Every structure is written in structure tokens, then in C-alpha cells.
Amino acid sequence: MTASGFSLVLNATDGGARAGVIESPHGAVDTPAFMPVATQGSVKGVTPQELQELGAGIVLGNTYHLYLRPGIEVIEEMGGLHEFMGWKGPILTDSGGFQAFSLRAMAKLSDDAVVFRSHLDGSLHRFTPESAVAYQERLGVDVMMCLDQCVAADGSEEAVREAMERTHRWAARCRDAWKSSRQALFGIVQGGVSEEMRRESAEFITGLDFPGYAVGGLAVGETKAEMYEMVSFTGELLPVDRPRYLMGVGSPEDLVEGVSRGMDMFDCALPTRVARNGALLTPEGRINVVAARYSRVKGPVQEGCDCLACVGFSMGYISHLFRAKELLGLRLASIHNLRFVQRLMEEMRCRIVSGDFDDFAEDFLGRYRPTDEAARMAQKRRWMRERVGG
Amino acid sequence: MTASGFSLVLNATDGGARAGVIESPHGAVDTPAFMPVATQGSVKGVTPQELQELGAGIVLGNTYHLYLRPGIEVIEEMGGLHEFMGWKGPILTDSGGFQAFSLRAMAKLSDDAVVFRSHLDGSLHRFTPESAVAYQERLGVDVMMCLDQCVAADGSEEAVREAMERTHRWAARCRDAWKSSRQALFGIVQGGVSEEMRRESAEFITGLDFPGYAVGGLAVGETKAEMYEMVSFTGELLPVDRPRYLMGVGSPEDLVEGVSRGMDMFDCALPTRVARNGALLTPEGRINVVAARYSRVKGPVQEGCDCLACVGFSMGYISHLFRAKELLGLRLASIHNLRFVQRLMEEMRCRIVSGDFDDFAEDFLGRYRPTDEAARMAQKRRWMRERVGG
Fold first, then answer.
1. Which helix (H) or strand (E) holds B60?
2. In a domain, A339, yes or no
3. What number is the average pLDDT over the span A249-264?
């Protein structure tokens, strides 16, 4: 099986960074591209039209969530995921594996299948490589992901190897199960933070000849330095002519670092998740708009930002909306953060084409103050332990 | 004091119903008009631009809430309530009395003032007729309301009379305290469900010569029949050339009944409040979109509706958004209900002008199934007992 109507055309490279266009049955996407997360078929609080206006070219849905609610059959009957959620552009879905493997959900794992409990009602369900592909085909998405097994960064070498080898066997089965030429299927490289395993995994997965490749198993509790090293190392093992998707990555500094290491696609719930806590992205880093010191600021959250929140409202008003727990606050903050990230992608694409991406990256990273590393890692490890175990 | 730049011009009457235009310093409003409720300076989940697009001409803010958070001084410093919330059209504020009188809030009542506790931090505050007007002047709103005392429908005749007489004394003090000619001050008629007291109150309040008049103390637990009778009776005692505002009323059937009895302005949180529970307004009555039977409906919530929710999304998708507790569901439902009510007002204005309002009212009321009266009253009385006592 190959995917018709799906391709990557590279327009420019600058150092490791790549700018191009992915063609898909639902239109073209400029890369590098950030995919807002529509877990349950909706980017929280934002309409598809607003997503398009703020520059998103492709969104991500979660097979696990959509399978449980409203159900694959309902979405199929409603005309597929595009029609259901009112999004006309391309959609990528994850395989559902990441959620099914979460400690709270997983009931039983064998080479045949992962058996898991619904987080909604505790009922038992079963994903196989074959069914994960079939569900995504029935959703009608443009890019499907292979079922893979991901372990947290502090997992043993043995655990990482076992997960990687299972991921390889499953990738081959997904490849065989793939029936729809209107949809592309991406392979996922695992291997933790081991160069040896990453090489082994990249060789195996690229040997299966997928239309695109994901770097999985990162942003799961390792240090940023380890992650960047693995992205560089793995990226160089992937074919130049296929999209490279760095899964689960999306803080502004990681997007810049990922693009500089040759990644083309990213997804992360961070911009919308932190927005709902009042954390707004600016060129200097995140600010907490709820803080009393912003309550009388007449200017926008970010000077020069063209988003709905910054053009229409003062920072003082948005600060009030959060303190008063008004719905509009969540919405405006989400739109600002998504626009911030999309503009960052636009700027990177532009600077790759003009050949001064490194200057841009240096300027951006020099100015942007990331969240404290120790705090970030503690939080991430806790989150991962709860989700996929060690 | 008189209000410059504030007037009502009647264009047509049909039976008791009136169609006209209120001119205000922030523009004209077609009447009869429904005011969406922006308690804390935001109609929940909806932007000012969306409000304008769905046909709202004037919105209502709550002085009590805005006084407590973010504070009158903050809003004043931010350029007034219009500038603060980004709404360019006219704004009416209530006086804050209704909330301050709530059983949970009120600490002490005298002729001088109502002393109440903040629902936010329990701190003590004091509203006098003079300060209630001063706060509204500082908010910069177009229409201010006198401080009044409202009692629940099952209050004793003595309680109703005492509240009415205090309301009269306070109305005279509000009239004297009114300094800003750019803002109109409305008087409020009280008197419960007693024709005698309503007549006495209307005579007293209209004797003070306000730019507009409100019918207060209704929709507080009396039957619909009693309310309609009091609206008819009181409406006839008010001067023809001033706006008549029926406070706190806004279910679709009550809007039609109120307009047919000569009311020009209405406000109610109902369309947005019930929307957040998934109750959507249709010509046949409210439907609960969360119900499983709507999960595969491909058509819109209401055939022919031109709102964002109905034009862009299926009922099945909106049903999913509610079951999945997605923010977008609250937003789409609020927009649909507000548009439903605004379109109802547009239709009524049109049919008053064309002289067949009665046919319209009969058709609408024949088709629209209101919420069960007994259930509604039990709910309302419980709510009122918690809020303002008996």
C-alpha cells in the first residue's frame, strides 16, 4: 500500500532546518507545522474557523478518546471526522496506544493486543495493530499512526528494548493492515535515549517504507539535552523525502530546537492547556495573566500580536476574566497561545527560506525564558508515571 | 437632571405592543429589545463582536458584581465599562440592590443603606441610593437603575408595602444624586401582585419624572398569570413616551407576553444559563441536546437558524461536545440561544410594524411549549428564598 495524494515537497533547507509543503487529500500544509490538539474532536474552546484564521493547517485527534466517545461508528455515520468536527483541512490521529497504555487504563498487554479499561466507565476494550489502523481509516483522517508502545524516560533498558521490539512487530502488522490509499500511515521510531536502539529502530521502521516517520518516546521525562540529542541523532537516520513528526512536543523553545534538528511536524496540548490556567505565551516566556499586577494594564497581552485577544481586549480585562472565572478568558487565552505558536512556525518557515534560520533561532532562544527545567521535569515525570509507568 | 442624548421614539404600535428606537450616547437600540446579561462584564463565553453579529443592541451589567470585582475604580481607570469589556453599544446596569439584598449577603438594612457581605470574601460593604448611582455613573453606562428593594412573591403584604415605600424614598434620593446628563436613570415600580400598591407605586415613581421606567418585583415566584396581569396593569400606568423595562424576564413565552403588554426592554440570564446545561431553544420549546437520541442527528439544532452553531455544526456534534464536556459546546449553545431570542425580538418588531403582531404571538405561543409551570415555580421559589427571602 502507498498513499496517493500524499507527499512532502521541500522548498528550502537551512542547516538542519527544512521548509516545505505536505500535500494531502484535504489540502496542503506548510512545514514545519504545529498541530493543535483536538483530543475529542474539538480544540478546547476554539472553532475550526478560528483555528484556520490563526494559521493552523492541520489538527490532531486522539483515536482512544474518539473510539470511546462518541465511538468510531457514530463518527463514520456522521460522515467522518472532518465532517463531524467541521474542520476542512488535514487531520492526523494518534493510534490510541499512548492512552491505552496508561497505568490506569491498561489491563493486559500481549503481543497480540493491548487490553485496557475505559476512563469513562471502566469497560474493557482491546486495540490490536490491525484494529488501530482500521479505526483510523474509518475516521477518514489524512495521516494515521501505527500502534506503538512508549515507556517513560526512567524505564529500564530492558523495558525500553521490549517496547521497541514490540513496536517493530506491530509496525509491520499495521503496514499490512493498511487498506486505504487515500490515507497515509506513519511509522514510529522508538528506542528511548539509547543511540544504539534508536539506530536499530530507525533501520527497522524505515525498512518498512512508510509515507512519513515519527520520532516517538521522547518528551516523556528525559532532560531537554537528552531529547535534543536523540532528535538530532534519529533525524539523521530518516529519509530526506518523508515528513518527520516529533510527537508530543510543542513548548516554544522545543519547537525551535526541533525545527533546527530537521523535524517537520509537532503536536502538543501545552498551548491550550496552560492557557486555561492563565499562562500566556510571550516572546519573553510564559506570564501568568491572573496576577494582580496585570489588572490595570491597558495594553494587550503581547504588543503587536494580531490575535483576537490582543487586538480586541486589554490585558487588564483578560486578567479580570480569569479572576472572575469567566469562560471568555479561557477562550481568549487559548486563541492567543495558539496564535503565538502558529506565528512562531510562520516565522521559522520564512527564515528557513531566507536562509537565516540560525539567527532567528538564536534571537528567539536568547529572549525566551523557558519554564524552570527542574520543576518541568518533576512535573513531567509525575505525569508520565501516572500515565504510562516506568 | 435630565438625560441628554437619550430618548425613545415609537415607530408603531399594534394593540398593546410597541416598536421603536431608543437613542443613547452609545448608539440606537431597536425596541422591543432583549439585553443579554454580562454580570461580570462578559456574556459568558461570547465576544462583544459575536453579540453584535447575533443582533444584540444593548447588554446588561451587574453593579454589585463589578463593584466587588474588579472594582469600580479599576473599571474607571481602564476607561469605563464599555472600553473595559470591548462593547461599543449601549449598556444598562442594575443598581446592585437585588444581589445585596440576597439572604446570604445582607447584613443590615436601614433606610439609610443596605450593608452586605461580599460573596467572594465575606467582607462588609454598604450601598446607599447615592452611592449606587455614583458607582453606575463612574462605570459610564448609558442606563442606570435606582436602588430598590425587591421581595419574593410569597412575601407578606406588609413586607411588600415596606419594601415599596423604601423603594420610593430611595428613588427620590437617587433622582437627587444623579449628576451625569450623559447617562439616563430609570425609576422602578414595585408593589408585588397588588393592584392597589402597583398603582400607588407607579404614581409615586412617575411623579419623579425619570427618562425610563422599570417594572420590578416580578418574575420572583408568582404564577405566570399573576405576572402577566401585573405587567398589563402597571404598563398602562406608565407614560407612553418613556421606555418600559420588565426586569429579569426573558423566557421566550414571557418575552412575547411582555411585548404584547407594552414592554420595551427585557433582561434575563436564562438563554445563556440553560445553554450551559445543554438546553437549546427551538420554536417548539427547549430541547436537551445532551440526550443520546441526538447523537447521530446530521442536521442543525434548528432548521433555518442562521447562528454560528446551526450553520457550522450538526446537532450530533454539539451533543457530543456536551457529553464530552468540551468548552466549545457551552459556547455554541449560548450563541444559539441568544440568537434565538434576538431573532424573536426582530420578528416581533417587524410584526408590530406590519400590524399583525397578534397573529405572530398566537402562532408562536401555540407552537412553543414552555417549561412545566409547577416545576418552574418550585424552582423559582426555591431560588428566590435563597436570594431575597420571603
1. strand B59-62
2. yes
3. 97
Which of B74, B308, B328 has its CB closest to that of A296?
Answer: B74
CB–CB of A330 and B327 under 8 A? yes
Do B213 and B92 lie in one domain? The reply is: yes
The answer to whether residue A257 sits within a structural domain is yes
**Is A261 in CB contact (< 8 Å) with chain B?**
no
State the pLDDT at residue B12. Answer: 98
B267 labelled catalytic:
yes
- B179 lies in the same domain as B322: no
Give the nearest partner residue to A45 out of B74, B314, B327, using CB atoms: B327
Listed in sequence order, the residues at least 6 apart from B252 whose beta carbon sits closer than 8 Å to its beta carbon are B281, B340, B341, B344, B364, B368, B370
Decide if A78 and B314 are in contact by the 8 Å CB cutoff: yes
Grid coordinates of B131: 452611592
Q: Is the distance from CB of B209 to CB of B168 less than 8 angstroms?
A: no
Sort B225 into a burial class: Cβ within 10 Å, 0-12 / 13-18 / 19+. Answer: exposed
Tell which wins on pLDDT, A223 or B381. Answer: A223
* From B94, B142, B148, B264, the catalytic residue: B94
Q: Is residue A368 part of a domain?
A: no
Q: Which range, of A27-36, A366-375, B155-164, B249-258, averages the lowest pLDDT?
A: A366-375
**Taking Cα atoms as reference points, which of A171, A242, A170, A342 lies closest to residue A20?**
A242
Other beta carbons within 10 Å of B12:
16
Cβ–Cβ < 8 Å for B151, B388: yes
Note whether A30 and A84 are same-domain residues: yes
State chain A's mean pLDDT as an integer: 95
> Same structural domain for residues A235 and A252?
yes
Element (H, E) at B135: helix B129-139
Least Cα distance to B380 among B193, B249, B201, B279 occurs for B249
Residue A175 shares a structural domain with residue A204: yes
Give chain B positions within 8 Å (CB) of A42: 321, 324, 326-328
Residue B148 C-alpha, separation from nearest chain A C-alpha, in angstroms? 26
| Residue A390 confidence (pLDDT) | 40
Question: For residue B1, is it within any domain?
Answer: no
Is residue B154 within 8 A of residue B389, CB to CB? The reply is no
Same domain, A159 and A297: no
Number of structural domains (chain A) is 2
Q: Among A360, A355, A332, which Cα is nearest to A345's? A: A360
Residue B111 annotated to the active site: no
Higher pLDDT, B379 or B352: B352
A231 falls in which pLDDT band (50, 70, 90)? very high
B70 chain-A contacts, CB cut-off 8 A: 295, 316, 320, 323-324
Q: Same domain for B223 and B284?
A: no
| pTM attached to this predicted model | 0.96
pLDDT at A388: 59
Do A126 and A70 fall within a single domain?
yes
